[in-house]
Amino acid sequence: MGEVVLEMKNIVKDFPGVRALNDVNFEARSGELLALMGENGAGKSTLMKVLSGVWPYPTYEGDIYLRGELKRFYNTKEAEAAGIAIIYQELNLIPELTVAENIFLDRQMTNAFGAIQWSKLFAETQRLLDELNISDFKPTDKVRDLTVGKQQMVEIAKALSKKADILVFDEPTSALTDKEVAALFEIIRKLKRQGVCMSYISHKMEELQQIADRVVVLRDGKTIGPVTPIPEITLDQLISRMVGRDVKDMFPKGQFQRGEKVLEVKNFEIDNPDLPGQKKVKNASFCAYKGEILGISGLMGSGRTELVSGIFGAPPGAARGEIYLDNKLVRFRSPHAAIEHGIGLVTEDRKRIGLILGQSILQNMTISSLETVTNMLGIINESKERSLAQDYVKRLAIKTPGLDVKIDTLSGGNQQKVILAKWLNIKPKVLILDEPTRGIDVGAKVEIYNLLNKLVEEGVTVIIISSELPEVMGISDRILVMCEGEIVVELTREQATKELIMAYATGSQK
Ligand SMILES: Nc1ncnc2c1ncn2[C@@H]1O[C@H](COP(=O)(O)OP(=O)(O)OP(=O)(O)O)[C@@H](O)[C@H]1O
Ligand SMILES: [Mg+2]
């Protein structure tokens, strides 16, 4: 670790009704990765946007020093010129353009006549990719054909092409496969050796040990404790810094009596729309019972999401096979039909499905639960709706000044909690959750597990997809493991170990 490159001192940032940052202080050094941790809404993304110069963030109070020099960036160009690059979770690339065009988008390489110098553009891009040891895509590839992980590498190459030496990652791994995460970490290690100063926001505790050098915690817009070297802090200490109390049981497990069979899926098959003749889901059969939490594990891309959306009727007609609900054969031609039969699905992609941007928290929480709060005359009982919503805001610790603020202004994790609240509110017969705690902080995770336990107690059948092994092992009664579109094994809670699940998920055990 080298000298102090970046210092943020006494930073305060207000939004209408919210003090997002309240006297934040920290420093980051060259050649290190500084983890920025904290609960949803703690102010992590806001702090990094203050650094980026993006409007309206330059209206903060406090001081930013770069290598000892006081700076204030009034737009992103100024921050970029000072060597700062931010890699957001929602990537900012243009899918229809090539990798090379995306990297040099705002610095056209043209000759004296204004024509783009393609060969120079591609050669320069290749040089950047070589520098990062990236060989699995080419400068001429279209960005839309790349996986999210590879698109992220394009963003990094873009940042480095601008000579950035302060790099910020805001939840970079939440949509990456294990392999892509490993590739990203390899690049980060290389950048450390080159002396780049990096700051890294993540809710994934395991990543800290692997990649971070020091950690700083934000809570309610304040820095809690000093910037601490990773070896000097235990996981428990870190969690209590984040949530302000000790968390004793990370995975509370309700004791249930397994009841009757509620859902049975037989011989489910879903074609791969991109590769004719190949299948996303092959011959999948399983049952789910009342009074249990059924976990579905597997690597990203193993067909888990396709399986559950297929059950839910999305996209319509994609799946072949049979679904029995309470022993009766049913067929859902659309998600709407599935919901009418009492099946709920919390999708993993909260940006595209689930949220209605521009609408209030209250509207988002109650949109498809209207029936439960509509009185006999068909009029929405507003005060009942409000009090239900208020209850979830409290239980899930959704950080907001009120129910009527637009959902867009909530932090990423808090938006996720609103979607979850909507479905918890509906209490369907079968609730399927696809990566429900992605991007959610530790304290709220525990609260979500508690709520799921409560739902099961009330008779709801819960099916949960999770990439996080401790989570799926901690809360499930049974676990199905998928590999390449097939359910390869069913494990009981007692049988399941990390090693066994991984062996089945990677196909090394059959
Ligand atoms: N544009 C905005 N208008 C109003 N409030 C905002 C705006 N942006 C952020 N906030 C509020 O500022 C606080 C901090 O949000 P921020 O996005 O920085 O949280 P975060 O720590 O990144 O959380 P997460 O882990 O959920 O991403 C939250 O209470 C949020 O609602
Ligand atoms: Mg954030």
Automatic annotation (TrEMBL):
Translocase is among the record's keywords: yes
Entry GO CC: plasma membrane
Subcellular localization, as worded in the UniProt entry: Cell inner membrane; Cell membrane
The protein, known as: High-affinity D-ribose transport protein (ABC superfamily, atp_bind)
SUPFAM superfamilies given in the database record: P-loop containing nucleoside triphosphate hydrolases
Residue intervals of the ABC transporter domain: 6-245, 263-509
Gene3D superfamilies in the cross-refs: P-loop containing nucleotide triphosphate hydrolases (3.40.50.300)
Gene field: rbsA
Pfam families: ABC_tran
Main localisation: membrane
Organism: Candidatus Competibacter denitrificans Run_A_D11
PANTHER family linked to this entry: CARBOHYDRATE TRANSPORT ATP-BINDING PROTEIN MG119-RELATED (PTHR43790), GALACTOFURANOSE TRANSPORTER ATP-BINDING PROTEIN YTFR (PTHR43790:SF9)
Transmembrane spans: none
